[in-house]
Specification:
CATH class: Mainly Beta
Number of domains: 1
Order of helices and strands: HEEEHEEEEEEEEEEEE
Radius of gyration: 17 Å
Largest sheet: 8 strands, antiparallel
Bound molecules: calcium ion
Shape: globular
Number of helices: 2
Number of strands: 15
């Protein structure tokens, strides 16, 4: 999905409301996220990822399944801009039946209020700075987070990011966009903001 489409979907959601009833749209707001106390020089660019080859129908089922099966490390994910139709899922090299546990850090340089959008197909669960920020855990076509996710970062730092995601069949999407202080339009969270600790 192009950024302009994402914006159109967002604003449609804001103005149309759930059942066509005009209602003020409240962003879901988070604060008090915890940054990590880490040696940044030990970090590498991109997010770390472990893949599981499995056809699940929910994030809960994926996490339960990983208790019994070992995953395999994949190449780091530069940024979350995957909207690949029936193509390969992230860096897995597989197009269907993929579970992913994505971990690393989001570097925030400027404190302030950020708005995030998540677009997913299929299920996703996103935690940031130790808080569950967003969850759309079941099989679904491309679906944008609604309402927008607003996060107030009190301080610069490296905030732990933890994402569970799966693609069951057909098309797949995992996108993370933000509107950071000083930006006029949403854009993908840039590769320069993602880090992981190599193992
Ligand atoms: Ca697929
Ligand atoms: Ca799918």
């Amino acid at each position: 999905m192009k950024v302009s489409h994402l914006l159109a979907a967002l604003f449609l959601g804001m103005f149309l409301g759930g059942a066509g009833v005009p209602a003020p749209v409240k962003a879901q707001s988070f604060s008090d996220l915890k940054s990590a106390d880490i040696d940044a020089s030990a970090l590498k660019p991109g997010l770390g990822v472990t893949y599981y080859s499995v056809f699940v129908r929910s994030i809960r089922e994926l996490i339960e399944w990983t208790d019994y099966k070992k995953g395999r490390k994949g190449p780091p994910i530069a940024r979350l801009d995957n909207n690949v139709g029936k193509g390969d899922v992230l860096t897995s090299g597989q197009d269907d039946g993929v579970g992913a546990h994505i971990t690393g850090y989001l570097r925030i340089d400027k404190p302030g209020s950020y708005v995030f959008l998540v677009n997913s197909n299929d299920g996703v669960r996103l935690s940031l700075g130790g808080k569950l920020i967003y969850e759309d855990p079941d099989v679904h076509p491309d679906r944008l987070s609604d309402p927008p996710i607003e996060i107030d970062f009190a301080a610069p730092g490296y905030y732990p990011i933890d994402i569970w995601y799966f693609e069951r069949k057909n098309t797949s999407t995992l996108e993370l966009l933000w509107l950071a202080p000083g930006m006029e339009d949403f854009d993908f969270v840039p590769a320069s903001a993602f880090f992981h600790r190599p193992e």
